[in-house]
Amino acid sequence: MVDDERLFVCDAEGLLDGGRGVRFALLAWGQPATGFVIRHRGQVHGYLNRCAHVPIELDWREGEFFESGGQYLMCATHGAVYEPDSGKCAGGPCRGGRLHPIAVHEGAGKIYWLPDERFRAPAQG
């Protein structure tokens, strides 16, 4: 992996297991959107910040994606819940759906996301 392919999200020490996530801007299929990273069971996971039920952002308040028990990611609008490690719907109105994963990399104390054909960096300006 070439450093130019990775886009910095946050310092790894700030992303606590089951804690607040970190949002970042991106283009999803050419349209402005946000992605987010969370840590679950020691691993970092990235997703498009868009519920599979209705295409709205998930977080309750900025960066708050986990439900109160810290077991699942939960949409603040309709209560759809997702498995943090796979993005698969675990209950609620998202039945059969899943979050869109974003490739992430953790190394040298930092967390990066990796653009692909679906998700690109927003224009700098």
Automatic annotation (TrEMBL):
Which UniProt keywords are listed?
Answer: 2Fe-2S, Iron, Iron-sulfur, Metal-binding
User: Does the entry feature the keyword Cell inner membrane, yes or no?
Assistant: no
SUPFAM superfamilies, sorted: ISP domain
**Which PANTHER family does the record associate with it?**
PTHR40261, RIESKE DOMAIN-CONTAINING PROTEIN
Q: InterPro entries per the record?
A: Rieske_2Fe-2S, Rieske_2Fe-2S_sf
Protein known as: Rieske domain-containing protein
A Gene Ontology molecular-function term?
metal ion binding
Rieske domain residues: 7-113
